[in-house]
Amino acid sequence: MYRTILVPLDGSILSERALPYARSLARANGAQIVLLRAVESTSISEPLAPRDREKAIADAEAYLAGLFPGPNDASPVTTLVSPGNAGDLILEEVRSRGVDLIVMSTHGRSGLSRAIYGSVAERVCHQAPVPVLLVPSACEHAWPGDRQLRILVPLDGSALAEAALGHVEELADTLEAEIIALRVAEPAEYVKFAYPDAPEGEIFEVGDVRQAGDYLEAIASRLRARGRHVAARVESGAPTATILAVAREENADVIAMATRGRGGLARLMMGSVATGVVQRANLPVFLVRSGLVSGRETDESVRSIESPVTTTLGALGLQEIVQSASRGNLRAARDVLTALNGPDSGLQNLVEQELDQVTSPHLWTRLIEFLALGSWDGQPIDLPVPVSTDGDYLKHRVRRVLLPRPGAPAEDGKRQALRRSLDEPRQEIQVVALDLVGLRGECSLTDGVIAALTGDSLQVKEQDATVLGRLGGSAAIEALVRALHTQHGILSHSITSALVQIGPDAVPRLIDELDQPDDTARWHVTEALAELESVEASI
Q1: 217/261 same-domain check
Q2: Are residues 101 and 63 in the same domain?
Q3: What's 75-126 look like in SS3?
Q4: CATH classification of the domain holding 453
Q5: Most buried among 62, 235, 409, 480, using CB within 10 Å?
Q6: 241: containing domain
Q7: Is 39 helix (H, G, I), strand (E, B) or coil?
Q8: Range list of H helices, 391-453
Q9: Is residue 144 part of a domain?
Q10: CA distance 271 to 218
């Protein structure tokens, strides 16, 4: 599901061609659209002067505000203008905002700077940790509203190309579209001409139309078994030209493909094909950088303990899997948690080291949710049969990565996640967050802990009082003393215990309360002072 869609714009009509597609996707999911305009000099050698930069920013903000002037648009729209390099800003916003999809034109500006903007699109496609829906400069195709949309998916037979299928399924679900799986079997003479060093065995494999048909039908059958409407075609010819011809014949609305698929000597095959398709297509092209983990299951065998998670982590890249998990990808989350739960301590340490680099709070929020509810982004997560059947072991490992790691880039993201979780309406998540705040000694979150003390759940309040006792400080003391006047019964004893835990620092404030008319509160204050005196005497 796409929750946040980023649309980079440069102020040109060509760049705005991305907007109708972004709006269609956002409306289907109720997603937020983020319109991004980078303010940068049109000259490589001369940066903008301060006054010119201020004017450029103001003009850009007015431009973005005018794109969606009506208040009744079905999708929320956020605008962002920032000075700097467009490519850097796009990639930064993708990670900081938890963007799920980028929708952008390949070329927007005219004249000499067109090549600059084109290189931005190329860089984004190669580096973005999310799929990119590219709208080519020649695109004239509007998605029709009177028929089912059709997504053409070329596959080259490699596992990395198939990794795009999960993202394609997600796109198909969003658009309620039919999937057309295509395998182009290149004639042997074409492959030999394009890749003269390729071994004969690979050439015959590529040119075997019957084998290509069997492969494609197996893929289509798996997709149909998951409820997808899928057609399959096998064609022979030059890949780029054949893909574009089939797109026309099938009246396709999107071409979806991995940017690089084949391994070995032909590893550039799908990369060069994707480039050729984008350059010549007149309809949107949905690109998934190979290495991104699919948002859906593409092979049920990954559920089996016989398919080691180390294989998945090694093939697709540990960093990419962790990033996918932070975006709510269930399969990636399962891989991360299975690795943490497995017997390979070396793999566990590698995963923990990679988690230490995650600065976005999204992953940490979802790990807190997992500890509290056993779910991931609201979805049940069924792990493979663990080597350790003790569920507490995995929770211990997850809690461990949420504890302080001095100097790790992830620390600020953890604090943001804890603050969000303290505001959660689900008390299970609040209780876990409170426990972690206390274990971490996170005094910077004292205000959030105090706010949770005013809720309705007794369990949350008891945990809250305990954590305030651990954190201490004048704000915690004041909140606990005030609570003595409003919270009675069992909770009063928890508050008293927390004040005792804080120790001598709480005594002056407790003494002030002895003059208050509230008999119940005064009794608990007296009890706390007596316990503190007893503790001090024993020391």
Answers
A1: yes
A2: yes
A3: CCEEEEEEECCHHHHHHHHHHHHCCCEEEEECCCCCHHHHHHHHHHHHHHHH
A4: 1.25.10.10
A5: 480
A6: 150-288
A7: strand
A8: 391-402, 411-422, 427-440, 446-452
A9: no
A10: 24
Measured CA to CA in angstroms, residue 172 lies from 2, 28, 32, 153, 232 at distances of 12, 11, 19, 11, 15
pTM (2 decimals)?
0.52
Q: Which of 395, 416, 438 is where one domain is finished? A: 438
Residues 6 or more apart in contact with residue 118 via CB below 8 angstroms: 106, 107
Q: Supply 262's token pair.
A: 């084949």
pLDDT tens per residue across all 539 residues of the chain: 788 999 999 888 888 999 999 999 999 888 999 999 988 644 443 455 666 767 878 888 888 888 876 554 567 888 898 888 888 899 999 988 889 999 998 864 433 333 334 567 777 887 888 999 999 888 888 899 889 999 999 987 766 667 678 889 999 999 999 999 998 876 554 444 344 444 444 333 444 566 777 778 888 888 898 888 999 999 888 888 899 999 999 999 999 988 753 333 233 334 567 777 888 889 999 998 765 654 433 333 333 323 344 444 443 456 777 888 888 788 888 888 887 876 655 567 778 888 888 888 999 999 999 999 988 888 888 775 443 444 567 888 888 899 988 888 999 999 999 999 999 889 899 999 999 998 888 899 989 888 877 777 788 888 888 888 888 888 988 888 887 777 656 677 787 788 888 888 878 887 777 776 666 667 767 777 777 666 555 44
Q: How many CA atoms lie within 13 A of 193 on its CB side?
A: 6
Q: Where among 263, 288, 313 does a domain terminate?
A: 288
CATH of the domain at 45: 3.40.50.620
Are residue 359 and residue 420 in the same domain, yes or no?
yes
Total structural domains within the chain? 4
Give backbone dihedrals phi and psi of 458, rounded to 5 degrees, phi first. -65, -40
Indicate the helix (H) or strand (E) that contains 379. strand 379-380
- Measure the CA–CA gap between 71 and 153, rounded to whole angstroms: 37
Gap between the Cα atoms of 486 and 433, Å rounded: 24
Please indicate, yes or no, whether residues 264 and 379 belong to a single structural domain of this protein.
no
Residue 141: CB atoms within 10 A of its CB come to 18
User: ∠ at Cα 123 (195, 355), nearest 5°?
Assistant: 105
Looking at the fold, whether 283 and 344 belong to one and the same domain comes out as no
Q: Are 121 and 87 in contact (CB under 8 A)?
A: no
| Residue 226: how many other CB atoms lie within 10 Å | 12
Question: Buried b vs exposed e over 27-61: b needs ≥16 C-beta within 10 Å?
Answer: ebbebbbbbbbbbbeeeeeeebeeeeeeebbeebe
CA distance 189 to 208: 12
Task: Determine the residue type at 297.
Answer: E
Selection from 291, 343, 339, 45 nearest residue 160 by Cα: 291
Same domain flag for 125 and 154:
no
Buried b (16+ CB within 10 A) or exposed e, 390-422: eeeebbebbbebbeebeebebbebbbbbbbbbb
Instruction: Please measure the distance between the N-terminal and C-terminal CA atoms of the chain and give it in whole angstroms.
Output: 59
Tokens 């930064």: give the residue: 92
